[in-house]
TrEMBL record:
A GO molecular function held by the record: 3'-5'-RNA exonuclease activity
Gene3D superfamilies: Endonuclease/exonuclease/phosphatase
Protein name (record): Endonuclease/exonuclease/phosphatase domain-containing protein
Domain Endonuclease/exonuclease/phosphatase: residue ranges: 31-275
Matches recorded under SUPFAM superfamilies: DNase I-like
Pfam family, one: Exo_endo_phos
Amino acid sequence: MVMKKLIIIAFLLFGIVINAQNDESDLTVASYNIRWNSPDDGINIWENRKEWLTQSIKFFEVDIFGAQEVTFTQLKDMAGFLPAYQYIGEGREGGAKGEYSPIFYAKDRLEVLDSSTFWLSETPQTTASKGWDAALPRIVTWAKFRDKKDGDIFYFFNTHFDHRGVIARKKSAELIAYKINEIAGDGPVILSGDFNTAPDSKPHKILLKNKLEDTFLSLSQEQRYTPGYTFNSWDVEASGDRYRIDYIFYRGEELSPLKYHVLDGQRGKRFISDHFPVIVKFEWTNTAEK
């Protein structure tokens, strides 16, 4: 009888170990427009949100995320609240000037092998260049990562498309698709960002046409938890047209999305940001480049 109990316990422990090992293959990714630190945001000023916002990253155990609208001051605040993370990126005006679209990553889990920035313009290597009919310079921060747990290699791109330029958003989608192919080749890719465009728009269709998959569309309703939109504009009643403008795309058979979550962070009239973050859990389905 004692031996039988020991065997049962051994099988249970073995199952726990196997499940833990399977969980280690998961990669939790987020896209987070944090809203720049405007002094005109009333109760939603950055000082009232920064701890809440960074706590959400830690609570959901995000391995890597792309952020948008990040000023240098906010970047330093986030780094201070997130000591387990490193970041890469530069301001859209060059160096520490202008808003960043940084990539934050868990330094114990991931290693950067290569990284850079390019601008969404006709001259993508020209610092602070503004493209087409865009109101502002826009950038893409990218990096090649190695997962320290199993050696898997993947590329991560993060961006923020222009809020006014219709042509600029279309051309930006074409450019980023081209640069992904140029930089990542056939490697697995994750693309995060605030694309300032609806799911039925031309930029969205361009990205899908270039073999990037929208994680939302790749999953069933049971695998998604979302209010149905990502931009809240500090509106408690969620009035007007509401749809997704923040996305996480992916490419590669090695990556398989498991869950999609839009964190509707709202506490009365207080919001975590004027965008709700998108959080996606991926599973590595086989071994990528070593």
